[in-house]
Amino acid sequence: xxxxxxxxxxxxxxxxxxxxxxxxxxxxxxxxxxxxxxxxxxxxxxxxxxxxxxxxxxxxxxxxxxxxxxxxxxxxxxxxxxxxxxxxxxxxxxxxxxxxxxxxxxxxxxxxxxxxxxxxxxxxxxxxxxxxxxxxxxxxxxxxxxxxxxxxxxxxxxxxxxxxxxxxxxxxxxxxxxxxxxxxxxxxxxxxxxxxxxxxxxxxxxxxxxxxxxxxxxxxxxxxxxxxxxxxxxxxxxxxxxxxxxxxxxxxxxxxxxxxxxxxxxxxxxxxxxxxxxxxxxxxxxxxxxxxxxxxxxxxxxxxxxxxxxxxxxxxxxxxxxxxxxxxxxxx
Length: 332
Known about the structure:
Blueprint lengths: L1 H31 L50 E2 L15 E2 L4 H8 L6 H12 E2 L11 H12 L5 E4 L1 E3 L6 E3 L7 E3 L4 E5 L3 H7 L5 E4 L5 E4 L4 H18 L5 H10 L2 E3 L5 H9 L3 H13 L4 E8 L6 E5 L4 H6 L2
Antiparallel strand pairs: 1-2, 2-3, 4-7, 5-6, 8-12, 9-10, 10-11, 12-13
Helix pairs in contact: 7-8
């Protein structure tokens, strides 16, 4: 027993001595090792200002310049003849020949059922290529576009009304007229709609005698404004879709409005779409106001009104009828 106790004491002392030796060696190694200093803290670098407020200038995001496209008219089975489309808001003088149309067919309605924000221009160009003659779909003036769409709808569904007007106020007697509950509203059809151009059509067309209207911007640059056509609407859609695909989020509405103006303008010293976007976005308010006054005075803008009869006084009144493409498509 004594031997076993003595052996255990020796083992304990040996372990303790080994621990002390290792500890002393570790401390000696630390005293000889070089001291590791933390890396110096770098002062924050000043952020460089962006080239432009939208991130679309040189070195930032850039829009691709769109090229004109020729839409080839498609062959169709002529179940009925094409009829001339009369009464265009622009008078049709710029097309050089009459435009004829044909009623929608089943294929057209199925295509419209699958329309979305990315393919809307392509779908309608294809539809126009089948159902219109005498004009390239891309050359159709934007002011005539709603009229042609309503003409095609009326030719396809002559007895089917458009989405009605829920209420209107008579300017003659002051009566507020409300449509009965659970109704489609006061009936609106193609033949009681008026498509009117803001301003005098002949004067506006005369400004574009050379194909565009030229004027000088407040800073002295020369600027040419073109009448808006479906080709310009396609350019806007392409820029919007490109932005959403590359950036990963929808384009801000204010940037879309600037692009809508840029595509119909040719500005001195601006070589591409990005140059025009940057120039327009950096204009001061006073200069921008003067510019848009010139543009609006040389543009063809269509206002749609519906002729309705006041139930109280019996007078015929004109009520503003907003054109919404989603409502138009859903009514087919």
